[in-house]
Structures are given as structure tokens and as C-alpha cells.
Amino acid sequence: MKEKLLSKLDKFSYKYKVEGETVVIDLGAYLEMSVKFNGEKIEIKDKLRAWNFLTGMMNMSIKQSVVYNTIAVVVAVIIIMIAVKVEHFDASSAILISIMSMTWVLIWTIYYTFVAEQMKSRIINWLN
Question: 24: alpha, beta or left, given left = phi > 0 and alpha = psi -120 to 50?
Fold first, then answer.
């Protein structure tokens, strides 16, 4: 099955590396998919490498980045609200910054999820 996947990756010019029984596929924009062959079982995982648009310097899965970014946006909004109350920061600017932060996270989360799920489906189709 691994050879079948490698031939399809070569056919469609994907960048990949083989590490033992695991094939790591580079999907661009600091996203990679790992396919681990364990006998008849196949484990497919996504991973955001460091310096991507969602997690900055940290490596993590897309699911982990959703939790991380939700917490980060909530903390940022709280800090901005405190700045509005205490420092008399302009409320319209605070709302704009909050909306822009949430939009940024949402757009990149949708992008990475779409690319990862599309590749996962493609791999499953190739291996069946």
C-alpha cells in the first residue's frame, strides 16, 4: 500500500519524505500530512509546522490550533476591553481589532482544514 501511495504522489508531483513506515507529505503553507502504515491499519494525521499563519512558532495539529487560537482570541478581546475601560481606548478601534483577529483565525483555520481534509480524502481514494 505504501508503494501505491508513493507512486500516486510521484505522479501528481507532491513533495514528500519517507521515514520508515511513515510518509510525510508537504502540502505547502507549512502544512504537512503524515501517513503511517501499521500492517493493515493506516493512520493519517495533519500537522502545522512552525511559522504558519495560525500557530506562529509552534508545531501542532489543526485541532490543537483551533483550541489555541480560541483561547488566544478570547484573551486578546479581554485585554482590549480592559484597555477600552481603563485607558479610554477608542471602542470602535477595539471592536475592529477584535473582528479582524477573529476573521484572520477563521480564514486560516478554514483554509488549513479544507486542504488537510481534501488530501486525506485523496489518500483514502488512492489506497482503495
Answer: beta
Spatial contact of 33 and 27, defined as CB atoms under 8 Å apart: yes
Cell of 57: 512558532
Q: Are the C-beta atoms of residues 15 and 49 closer than 8 Å to each other?
A: no
- Strands 15-19, 22-26: parallel, antiparallel or unpaired by DSSP? antiparallel
pLDDT digits (tens, 9 = 90+) for 44-84: 999 999 998 888 899 999 999 999 999 998 998 888 888 88
- Cα distances (angstroms) measured from residue 12 to each of 7, 42, 94: 9, 21, 46
Please answer whether residues 120 and 35 qualify as being in contact, where contact means their C-beta atoms are separated by less than 8 angstroms.
Answer: no
Closest CA to 71 of 101, 29, 41, 47: 101
- How far apart are the C-alpha atoms of 83 and 87, rounded to whole Å? 5
